[in-house]
């Protein structure tokens, strides 16, 4: 099969022929029809993830068709249209027994713990626990956008943020996960303040229901949190850092009103600082969001099927596998256009 392989961190990947994967007894091999290009892939390519060993194939947001099944798989057959959360759970640990597969104690992640979906085929573990059947009318490109960014944003807004109609929600970073959060929060009846460097990304946020869009630049907005507090009459009820940088994390916390909820979605370096004096003084909640278990997908898919949520509108570019190495390298540049890029092998 063809796959985008990198041999060293930070060096351009190469699309080349590699051996086809085989399914584990509990797993499947999926023919990749679409896979998302995510900032988490860029973090892995840069060497920020200790689970990755070289050489490596990135890619963790995917949709496709089951090609082969392991001997112990009961629920799936070749030809099934599927997607999968980026966290593949074991199904038997204490977290899984409690229904919290997104924090499985023995999780695997395609594109991180093993080779991922920037390829013609990808192996997935514990298929009976992790695969999600796709409606026939849901395109592979749209389905691929669900597995990491949209599902993570959905759970961050609905389960962790507990967003209610009429509340103010601030979203820092309007890439794929941030725009997903804007759309989901607006559909929940919240009033959204979207913040980003890119005017194009903010245009998308506005079209997805943001009440206010703030272009954050060094010259125009020195203190984005102060702007949010002014726009919301004292601070947001919920604020999400969808980018994952120390400044956006701190600004998100400073954007909150008393007893507000901060949800960290974007990956952060280990030395990130949080303004804890404000957390204590205003009794703020700090929450992390790490994807969504496969069993929690049906309510989200129902909203997608009814047209309340439109993840298809987030897909702003579709590229071939040969273009993936350069596109992956470009993920580290600030000020993108927002939206989701899909690779169609």
TrEMBL record:
The UniProt entry, under PANTHER family, shows: ALCOHOL DEHYDROGENASE-RELATED, L-THREONINE 3-DEHYDROGENASE
The UniProt function text for this chain reads: Catalyzes the oxidation of 2-deoxy-scyllo-inosamine (DOIA) with NAD(+) or NADP(+), forming 3-amino-2,3-dideoxy-scyllo-inosose (amino-DOI).
For this protein, the parts annotated as crossing the membrane are none
> Which protein family is named in the record?
Belongs to the zinc-containing alcohol dehydrogenase family. DOIA dehydrogenase subfamily.
Q: Give yes or no: UniProt keyword Electron transport.
A: no
From the Swiss-Prot or TrEMBL record, give the protein name.
2-deoxy-scyllo-inosamine dehydrogenase
Database matches in InterPro entries: ADH-like_C, ADH-like_N, ADH_Zn_CS, ER, GroES-like_sf, NAD(P)-bd_dom_sf, Zn_alcohol_dh
Give the E.C. number(s): 1.1.1.329
Report which reactions are catalysed by this protein.
2-deoxy-scyllo-inosamine + NAD(+) = 3-amino-2,3-dideoxy-scyllo-inosose + NADH + H(+); 2-deoxy-scyllo-inosamine + NADP(+) = 3-amino-2,3-dideoxy-scyllo-inosose + NADPH + H(+)
- Tell me which Gene3D superfamilies the record gives: Medium-chain alcohol dehydrogenases, catalytic domain
Keyword Zinc part of the UniProt annotation? yes
Instruction: Keywords in alphabetical order, please.
Output: Metal-binding, Oxidoreductase, Zinc
Q: Which cofactor does it need?
A: Zn(2+)
Q: What CDD domains does UniProt report for this protein, alphabetically?
A: Zn_ADH6
Q: Where is the Enoyl reductase (ER) domain?
A: 10-342
Pathway membership, UniProt: Metabolic intermediate biosynthesis; 2-deoxystreptamine biosynthesis; 2-deoxystreptamine from D-glucose 6-phosphate: step 3/4
Species source reads Streptacidiphilus cavernicola
């Amino acid at each position: 099969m063809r796959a985008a392989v990198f041999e060293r961190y930070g060096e351009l990947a190469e699309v080349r022929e590699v051996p086809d994967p085989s399914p584990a007894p509990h797993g499947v091999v999926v023919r990749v029809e679409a896979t998302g290009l995510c900032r988490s892939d860029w973090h892995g390519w840069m060497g920020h993830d200790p689970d990755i060993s070289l050489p490596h194939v990135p890619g963790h947001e995917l949709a496709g068709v089951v090609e082969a099944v392991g001997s112990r798989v009961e629920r799936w057959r070749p030809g099934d249209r599927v997607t999968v959360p980026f966290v593949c759970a074991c199904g038997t640990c204490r977290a899984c027994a409690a229904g919290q597969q997104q924090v499985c104690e023995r999780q695997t992640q395609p594109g991180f713990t093993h080779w991922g979906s920037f390829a013609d085929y990808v192996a997935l573990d514990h298929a009976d626990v992790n695969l999600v059947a796709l409606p026939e009318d849901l395109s592979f490109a749209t389905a691929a956008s669900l597995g990491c960014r949209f599902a993570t944003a959905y759970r961050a807004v609905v389960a962790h943020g507990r967003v209610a109609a009429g509340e103010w929600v601030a979203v820092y970073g309007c890439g794929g996960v941030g725009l997903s959060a804007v759309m989901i929060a607006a559909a929940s009846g919240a009033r959204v303040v979207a913040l980003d460097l890119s005017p194009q990304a903010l245009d998308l946020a506005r079209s997805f229901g943001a009440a206010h869009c703030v272009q954050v630049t060094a010259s125009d907005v020195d203190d984005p949190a102060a702007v949010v507090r002014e726009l919301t009459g004292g601070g947001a009820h919920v604020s999400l850092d969808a980018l994952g940088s120390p400044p956006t994390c701190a600004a998100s916390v400073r954007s909150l009103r008393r007893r507000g909820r901060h949800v960290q979605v974007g990956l952060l370096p280990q030395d990130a600082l949080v303004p804890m004096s404000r957390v204590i003084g205003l009794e703020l909640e700090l929450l992390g969001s790490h994807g969504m278990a496969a069993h929690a997908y049906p309510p989200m898919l129902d909203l997608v099927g009814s047209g309340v949520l439109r993840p298809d509108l987030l897909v702003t570019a579709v590229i071939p596998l040969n273009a993936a190495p350069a596109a992956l390298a470009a993920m580290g540049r600030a000020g993108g256009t927002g939206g989701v890029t899909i690779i169609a092998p």
